[in-house]
């Protein structure tokens, strides 16, 4: 099954066609400098230095409980750093007004809580909050942004349905529509394919790819599936125990040695027959036992 990103897609370091930020490599670039993140006395992310390229799709991967979601929360200022800073285009995000930051960055959290009995359109309209002013009426521009978000996510026909009665894939597209209505150039998604079957996983990832390629959005997403991360991302970030294990283009980063060191999974890494991107093939347990016995 092919996706919107074929093997000849541009790398993270190549100009992206029809990308409004391609002429400015600094635009929408996030960076962490000595970043430390904690929950109470427990350190989750420790001394992290990281640069996420603007105008690219970045996938953050790593074992369970390695700090992926915590890092994303730190990058969008939902979690205050215990140490270090996070910058957007060189500016400390903790020095930026909340509304100004919300106009730059949109977030789809993991397992978002749906307000009771809210319809799809009403949910998507919430994305316009950063653009509202006290006593200002709902504008044509606001409604146009909502209509565009509904159309891009294929949820226009669902606008009057209650979100909590939708299927998992439909609900996820509705939440992505909310993030799109926010009309930001930087979109962050925390495990957008969780609890979805394969078809709906690919639908969501294809949608994210289309949003990046058509509108030049910078995308940062946390994923579990290494094959999907390599296929859809221009830039790969690998975490282990709250620290950076590797970062760069998937073809350079995703090696058998790295997978075994980070995930403790012996494997082969072969070209994906559809896209040529790295594909992780775990070694069969029987073969591994036979090799160990020799």
Task: Outline the structure in words.
The protein has 294 residues and is of the alpha/beta class. It has a domain at 30-113 and 186-293: Rossmann fold (3-Layer(aba) Sandwich). The chain contains ten helices and twelve strands. Strands 6-7-8-3-9-10 form a six-stranded mixed β-sheet, with helices on both faces. A four-stranded antiparallel β-sheet has the order 2-1-4-5, with helices on one face. Helix 5 (168-181) packs parallel to helix 6 (198-215). The longest helix has 18 residues, at 198-215. The two termini are 39 Å apart.
Give the topology, please.
Elements: E1 30-39, E2 42-52, E3 57-61, H1 68-75, E4 83-88, E5 91-92, H2 98-104, E6 105-108, H3 120-125, H4 140-153, H5 168-181, E7 186-190, H6 198-215, E8 218-222, H7 226-232, E9 235-240, E10 243-248, H8 250-253, H9 256-263, E11 267-271, E12 278-282, H10 285-293
Parallel strand pairs: 3-8, 3-9, 6-7, 7-8
Antiparallel strand pairs: 1-2, 1-4, 4-5, 9-10, 11-12
Helix pairs in contact: 4-5, 5-6
Index terms:
6-stranded mixed β-sheet; 294 residues; disordered N terminus; 4-stranded antiparallel β-sheet; alpha/beta; Rossmann fold
